[in-house]
Amino acid sequence: MNFTILPAIDLRGGNVVRLRQGDYSQQTSYRIEPLVLARQYATAGASWLHVVDLDGARDGNLANLRLISELAGSALSVQAGGGVRTDDDVERLLDAGVSRVVVGSIAIRDPERVCRWLERHGPEKLCIALDTRQEGDVWRLPSAGWTQAESATLDDLAPRYAAAGAVHLLCTDIARDGMMAGPNIALYTHLARLVPQLRVQASGGVRGVADIRDVRAAGAAGVVLGRSLLEGELTLADALAC
Fold first, then answer.
1. Tens of pLDDT along 137-163?
2. For this UniProt entry, which segments traverse the membrane (predicted)?
3. H/E run at residue 28
4. I need a surface site. Which of 43, 85, 164, 204 has the fewest CB within 10 A?
């Protein structure tokens, strides 16, 4: 099975930023233009780019759509989300050139609607994002940029989307996101057993080549890399080579 490396660009106010554990008050900004960074990733050999509209994720609008459209016009295939709530949002991103639309909050709150999108657009055009926070033995699924609690759980929804024909599942361990503390291998091992038919993208905490190898061995089909690339802990060339 092919394993995909997805360098990430998180956007807030048109700038490249990273949050710690999804906390908007704990932001690190990077002094590089998003389009310049995307070109660097393409030159290093990436084929995909993962883009998050953090303004949209929290407020429910496609605040950075114009910039996302410019990124989608680069040499990379773009997977983008944040603020996708309606049928029109999906259409606008696809029309902007995005190859795959990431749906998170709406996938937690209204699975029936998202299953209709899967049927309408096809499973290759959507990535279901079930970002999760562990509470005891339960993997909870907060929404709205991880700021609002929801009743659904990862074990409820991942099998539902697998049964509906989804192919791509992005799963971030929120506690690890932006922390450079290593990925949660137990989480991806659990998903490989729970929904073996899905191509799971691991996200959160990846520091280096060893972590990439570990999530791949756990059954993930890809990995999203953010802070480790931005801060030089890992080079994209090394990530792609492994």
1. 999 998 877 778 788 999 999 999 999
2. none
3. strand 23-29
4. 43
